[in-house]
Design brief:
This protein is an alpha/beta fold. Helices cover about 40% and strands about 15% of the residues. The termini are far apart. It has a single domain, classed as Uracil-DNA Glycosylase, subunit E (3-Layer(aba) Sandwich), CATH 3.40.470.10. β1 and β2 form a beta hairpin. The protein has a 4-stranded parallel sheet with strand order 4-3-7-8, sandwiched between helices. A two-stranded antiparallel ribbon has the order 1-2. Strands 5-6 form a two-stranded antiparallel sheet. It has 8 helices and 8 strands; from the N terminus they run ββαβααβββαβααβαα. α3 (about 80-95) crosses α8. The relative contact order is 0.16. The chain has helices spanning about 25-35, 70-75, 80-95, 125-140, 150-160, 165-170, 185-190, 195-215, and strands at about 5-10, 10-15, 60-65, 100-105, 110-115, 115-120, 145-150, 180-185. The protein is globular. Bound molecules: uracil (URA) and iron/sulfur cluster (SF4). The site of uracil has 12 residues, from loops.
């Protein structure tokens, strides 16, 4: 695959993931091709591409922001602390994770070193735009009945910059991306709550949003 890249003064302009997309549109072909993506600079400092996980026939697609530290090491989405919160809420809402395809807007872990630890850093708009072709192809192949955006990065990338998760969460709306789309909070936002009371309340609200998804599928 050609590296599509031009140099400007002291900076590099990175095209996008498009030149790295495979001809054959299947999940295994996409996953394989994504391993070699150099569509933006994030591949340089990450361990590996973390592609989506799930079956072609999945009825729900969950989209997070980007892999975290554990996802980067293990090569699978939502396997760390945020993944535990997601699994717990799925179970409480009666959604089988096998019925879900789980992925992220950005496929490489972006981090900064703080006291020798790798701390999550929010991807910027250029990185989100560069990586979006992977997600568009995942949507094309999986064709979920319901698309759930976890947190503001996913919601704004997929539904537009005006989406406010706190205001718009929990509602299923028709979209060109999937018959029904919902924005809700990111599971990490529950972990960031200061008190266990707040955590419980936020977990209950998140679970309620997922129950709306479960009911729509029933
Ligand atoms: N946070 C995300 O947005 N995605 C993951 O895969 C893990 C944590
Ligand atoms: Fe490619 Fe996305 Fe990784 Fe950037 S973050 S290199 S666009 S897979």
């Amino acid at each position: 695959m050609p590296r599509v890249r031009t140099k400007t003064a002291g900076d590099e302009v990175w095209a996008s993931a498009v030149p790295y997309l495979p001809r054959r549109l299947t999940l295994p072909a996409l996953r394989k091709a994504s391993e070699d993506c150099h569509g933006c600079p994030l591949y340089r400092t990450a361990t590996q591409t973390v592609f989506g996980q799930g079956q072609t026939g999945a009825r729900i697609m969950f989209v997070g922001e980007q892999p975290g530290d554990m996802e980067d090491k293990q090569g699978a989405p939502f396997v760390g602390p945020a993944g535990r919160v997601l699994n717990e809420a799925l179970a409480a809402a009666g959604i089988d994770r096998d019925d879900a395809y789980v992925t992220n807007v950005v496929k490489h872990f972006k981090w900064i070193a703080v006291h020798r630890r790798r701390m999550h850093k929010k991807p910027n708009a250029r990185e989100v735009a560069a990586c979006l072709p992977w997600l568009e192809k995942e949507l094309e192949v999986v064709q979920p009945r319901i698309l759930v955006c976890l947190g503001a990065t996913a919601a704004q990338a997929l539904l537009g910059p005006d989406v406010r998760v706190t205001r718009d969460r929990g509602h299923l709306i028709p979209s060109r991306l999937a018959p029904q789309v919902m924005a809700t909070v990111h599971p990490s936002s529950i972990l960031r709550q200061q008190t266990s009371e707040d955590r419980h309340r936020e977990m209950e609200l998140f679970t309620q949003d997922l129950r709306v998804v479960a009911q729509a599928l029933a």
